[in-house]
């Protein structure tokens, strides 16, 4: 796991604890206020020849989340860097950004002691840990992550322990989702992804079943087989099951479905070079589902959850699916292939149809880097939400806001359904011209297979990848959706 930073709660004062653990950096929170930044009456201020307010004024600080003002103070015979770090109004999003800023400033240091104001300590922890994430194949470059973050809360160490643990579990789930998506596709194929899921299942006490190409053919999973037909590395359907410990028996069953395209060339309708460079992350939705499943027991989730990952590699070859092919999906619904690069919906269709027919779910949520249209519509920070049920849409949106992974609901426009009509099959995998709304027509395609249970589709093509570091995000795969779904399920 590439999160090397450790977070723990402690008691005492910032300066006293910094001396005790030999920390090189000590941090004091600064709130923003209508009359300017507000520094607490921290005992470490007595070690300075000037007041904290004077220092903030000198640097024109505002107390905005993530803002840092630095000075140096003598602590127990050593010089320690003092960071006055902004926490804004100490809302969860503020604390998440503040924790990330501290972790980045502490790179290369063995320990940092931080006072944290009352608020969502789990969010602060997530920010610090996720900003410490790094993924490398060879020797890592740049300074090492902060070694240890020691947290001092106003409520004391015991009160903060549960929040620290909750934040740590969610951050490590997001980091696992990032790991899976960032792994180069030369190593990562459907069989590799299934093996990683099996390792997660063993560690987390989950049930697992992996269907290979023969079982997929016997079971009628035509979409997964068609997408994987062009590759020498055959597809898999991964099924993970979680049942809560103890009694009473869970009265709710949720199915999560993830797109697991381990590399997407576009198939015979080949992507251009620029469009292919990030396609190792085209299984980000599947990685998110595996990571979420692995964290459920640690968070004490009381809902029964099944995770499905439809994994395939979309490659061009003489055996690849062709435009004009007709696929028979699980359950018998047929689709016409009009574009081999609209492959994600084909594998999801099989998994959704299987969930609808066999798993007796109370709700189904699928997660996928599905369409460039969603990215164009909403940019790089919001996931697109489509839902057949208003209550489900509302709870997912609220969970996204709380977790710092926001969703924006887009409509399932029934008038656009005609765009995916086919002359030779039940449905076509690409919308015809004259309608637009590529993310909407993709969602309408999926709706054909989702059955009559409450269903939601999260198109994470925008927020699933980041081009640069910002707050808790790191360049590359973001693990988007893991914290959102864990918040929702918890």
Automatic annotation (TrEMBL):
It is found in: Cytoplasm. Transmembrane segments: none annotated. Mn(2+) 1 binds at residues 264, 341, 343. SUPFAM superfamilies: Macro domain-like (SSF52949), Zn-dependent exopeptidases (SSF53187). It is an enzyme of class 3 (hydrolase). Residues 339-346 form the Cytosol aminopeptidase domain. GO terms for molecular function: aminopeptidase activity. Its EC number is 3.4.11.1, 3.4.11.10. The active site is at residues 271, 345. Binds 2 manganese ions per subunit. Keywords: Aminopeptidase, Cytoplasm, Hydrolase, Manganese, Metal-binding, Protease. Mn(2+) 2 binds at residues 259, 264, 282, 343. Its cofactor is Mn(2+). It catalyses: Release of an N-terminal amino acid, preferentially leucine, but not glutamic or aspartic acids; Release of an N-terminal amino acid, Xaa-|-Yaa-, in which Xaa is preferably Leu, but may be other amino acids including Pro although not Arg or Lys, and Yaa may be Pro. Amino acid amides and methyl esters are also readily hydrolyzed, but rates on arylamides are exceedingly low. Presumably involved in the processing and regular turnover of intracellular proteins. Catalyzes the removal of unsubstituted N-terminal amino acids from various peptides. Belongs to the peptidase M17 family. PANTHER family: CYTOSOL AMINOPEPTIDASE, LEUCINE AMINOPEPTIDASE-RELATED. This is Probable cytosol aminopeptidase. It comes from Actinomadura algeriensis. The gene is pepA.
């Amino acid at each position: 796991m590439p999160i090397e930073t450790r977070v723990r709660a402690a008691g005492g004062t910032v300066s006293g604890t910094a001396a005790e653990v030999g920390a090189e950096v000590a941090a004091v929170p600064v709130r923003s206020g209508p009359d300017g930044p507000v520094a607490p009456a921290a005992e470490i201020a007595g070690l300075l020849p000037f007041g904290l307010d004077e220092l903030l004024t000198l640097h024109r600080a505002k107390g905005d989340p993530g803002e840092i003002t630095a000075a140096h103070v003598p602590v127990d015979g050593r010089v320690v860097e003092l960071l006055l770090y902004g926490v804004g109004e100490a809302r969860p999003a503020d604390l998440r950004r503040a924790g990330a800023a501290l972790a980045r400033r502490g790179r290369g240091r063995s320990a940092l002691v931080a006072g944290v104001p009352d608020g969502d300590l789990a969010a602060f922890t997530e920010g610090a840990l996720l900003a410490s994430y790094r993924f490398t194949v060879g020797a890592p470059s740049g300074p090492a992550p902060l070694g240890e973050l020691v947290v001092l809360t106003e409520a004391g160490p015991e009160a903060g322990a549960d929040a620290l643990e909750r934040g740590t579990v969610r951050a490590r789930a997001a980091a696992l989702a990032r790991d899976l998506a960032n792994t180069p596709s030369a190593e990562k194929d459907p069989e590799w992804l299934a093996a990683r899921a099996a390792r997660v299942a063993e560690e987390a006490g989950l049930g697992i079943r992996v269907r290979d190409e023969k079982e997929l053919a016997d079971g009628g999973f035509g979409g997964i087989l068609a997408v994987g037909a062009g590759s020498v590395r055959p597809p898999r359907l991964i099924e993970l099951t979680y049942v809560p410990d103890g009694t009473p028996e869970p009265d709710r069953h949720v199915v999560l479905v993830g797109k697991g395209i381990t590399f997407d060339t576009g198939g015979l309708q080949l992507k251009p070079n620029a469009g292919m460079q990030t396609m190792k992350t085209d299984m980000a939705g599947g990685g998110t589902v595996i990571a979420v499943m692995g964290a459920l027991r640690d968070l004490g989730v009381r809902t029964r959850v099944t995770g499905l990952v439809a994994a395939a590699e979309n490659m061009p070859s003489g055996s690849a699916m062709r435009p004009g092919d007709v696929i028979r999906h699980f359950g018998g619904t047929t689709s016409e292939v009009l574009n081999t690069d609209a492959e994600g919906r084909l594998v999801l269709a099989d998994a959704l149809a299987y969930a609808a027919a066999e798993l007796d779910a109370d709700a189904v949520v699928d997660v996928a880097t599905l369409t460039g249209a969603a990215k164009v519509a909403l940019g790089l920070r919001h996931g697109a939400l489509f839902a057949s049920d208003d209550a489900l849409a509302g709870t997912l949106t609220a969970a996204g806001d709380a977790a710092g992974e926001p969703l924006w609901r887009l409509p399932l426009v029934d008038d656009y359904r005609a765009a995916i009509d086919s002359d030779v099959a039940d449905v076509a995998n690409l919308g015809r011209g004259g309608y637009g709304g590529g993310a909407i027509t993709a969602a309408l395609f999926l709706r054909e297979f989702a059955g009559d249970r409450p269903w939601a589709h999260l198109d994470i093509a925008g927020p699933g990848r980041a081009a640069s570091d910002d707050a808790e995000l790191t360049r590359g795969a973001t693990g988007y959706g893991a914290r959102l779904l864990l918040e929702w399920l918890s």
